[in-house]
Design goal:
The protein is mostly helical. About 60% of the residues lie in helices and about 5% in strands. The protein has 19 helices and eight strands. The structure holds arginine.
Length: about 475
């Protein structure tokens, strides 16, 4: 008989792994300290400002206020230096800090919680954390945008097939392709900035749910904590987690963009495409196949985007059935959000590195425009422009020429003029001037088009837009 079986248990049927019975199970399901301790800075900052406000509103004495604030600063140092001992029995960061404050300054510590509750406290701490996460995302995206614009400028003249349905469609420039991602990441930054604006109202002082009878000054704490204003409704304040949902929505959409670029990089770096070569820093070799260079970082960016989407989903599902106001379900908000933020920042950093490092194989890109009759649209446009036929007729003529080339086993410019004239007698030698991919891309000078000249113009504007 081992020690475990001798321990008293509340219920031998369901208490199996838990030596201490019900209280141990409760502690394990209830405690959030393992993950919410990362909120300690926000918690202490919020408590210091709350304390200052209580003093200036004459709700607690200056002496107690001073003792509380110096105790809180000491706790911050203890946590930072690793000497603070966190206790699961004290549930969360808020109670761990308050309990330690009592040890340090005695009963005056109990005055800090006047006119507040853990409900408005956690909402405030968490909002400050998410606000910082929005700023980090914005900065990280800026670095990625810069990398994309630099590489776009460098590759403004590099020609590759542009695809629809993953079929060769029309030739494009690689600079133009990279700028497409620049646009996505620009929208992502705006989403984070917008979420930040909307979240920047301070819940502190909403207390448990109904507000407080103490003569507090919520404008003072809101301003001191960098918020634009206090929240308008105390019940909404303690039950709102939109800010975390909006952050994760922005992160999830952005992660989808990262994932799509990662997917293209995986394809481009394959032996069949060889459009790019990924650097050693972001690839691994195979333990058995010596020729391989696996695009692991790109694959993980693609893979981890699913995890961010999952985190968003989990909080949406947590929130959807909750009546006002706070329910303990909401404690599930943090792991999802923290994991999403950590994962998101990691994939943006990895993608920035991959974009900076990738070697572009311009010859291979150009070569793969040889197949797929990629200038067929240029030919049709020429028939419209020079012969004055309606586009639908031109489309039909071009289709016949493509079929002829396919049969002959050549590209469109491999047909002779005489062969072309069997389909449309009015075609002249001039048609060959539009069948090269260089001419094709150079002609697409419409606003936002793929021409190298247009890409250079877009790059200059993009640099200004990065800010
Ligand atoms: N640990 C809790 C959370 O993360 C803090 C709020 C607890 N409030 C309460 N009434 N039990 O959400």
């Amino acid at each position: 008989m081992n020690d475990k079986t001798q321990m008293p248990k509340a219920n031998t049927l369901w208490g199996g792994r838990f030596e201490g019975g019900v209280s141990e199970i409760m502690e394990k399901i209830n405690a959030s300290i393992d993950f919410d301790k990362i909120l300690y800075r926000q918690d202490i900052r919020g408590s210091i400002e709350h304390c200052k406000m209580l003093v200036s509103c004459n709700i607690i004495s200056k002496e107690d206020g001073d003792a509380i604030q110096s105790g809180l600063k000491q706790i911050e140092k203890e946590i930072e230096s690793g000497t603070f001992s966190f206790s699961a029995a004290l549930e969360d960061i808020h109670m761990n800090v308050e309990a330690r404050l009592t040890e340090i300054i005695g009963p005056a510590a109990g005055r800090l919680h006047t006119a507040r509750s853990r409900n408005d406290q956690v909402a405030t701490d968490f909002k400050i954390w998410v606000r910082d996460a929005c700023d980090h995302a914005d900065n990280a995206l800026k670095a990625l945008q810069l990398a994309l614009v630099d590489r776009a400028e460098e590759n403004a003249d590099v020609i590759l097939p542009g695809f629809t349905h993953l079929q060769s469609a029309q030739p494009v420039t690689f600079g133009h392709h990279l700028l497409a991602y620049f646009e996505m990441f620009t929208r992502d930054r705006l989403r984070f900035q917008d979420a930040r604006k909307r979240l920047n109202e301070c819940p502190l002082g909403s207390a448990a749910l109904a507000g407080t009878s103490f003569p507090i000054n919520r404008h003072q704490t809101a301003e001191a904590l960098g918020f634009d204003r206090p929240t308008a409704n105390s019940m909404d304040s303690v039950s709102d987690r939109d800010f975390a949902l909006e952050y994760m929505s922005a992160a999830a959409i952005s992660a989808v963009h990262v994932s799509r670029l990662a997917e293209e990089m995986v394809t481009w770096s394959s032996a069949q495409f060889k459009f790019i070569e990924m650097s050693d820093s972001f690839t691994t070799g195979s333990s058995i196949m010596p020729q391989k260079r696996n695009p692991d970082a790109a694959e993980l960016c693609r893979g981890k985007s699913g995890r961010i989407i999952g985190s968003l989903n989990s909080l949406l599902i947590t929130m959807k059935g909750l009546a006002l106001t706070f329910s303990k379900d909401m404690q599930e908000d943090k792991e999802a959000t923290f994991d999403a933020a950590e994962t998101y920042e990691l994939i943006i950093a990895a993608m920035t590195g991959m974009v900076e490092d990738m070697k572009v194989n311009a010859d291979k890109m150009k070569k793969s425009t040889d197949v797929g009759f990629i200038t067929a649209t240029d030919l049709a446009d020429w028939v419209v422009r020079v012969l004055g036929l309606p586009f639908r007729n031109a489309h039909h003529i071009t289709g016949s020429l493509v079929a002829m080339a396919e049969k002959k086993g050549c590209d469109l410019d491999g047909l002779t003029l005489a062969e072309m004239q069997t389909v449309e007698p009015k075609i002249t030698e001039d048609v060959f001037s539009v069948l090269s991919v260089e001419k094709s891309v150079a002609s697409r000078v419409s606003f936002g088009g793929t021409a190298p000249s247009e890409v250079r113009r877009q790059v200059a504007i993009a640099r200004e837009r990065i800010g």
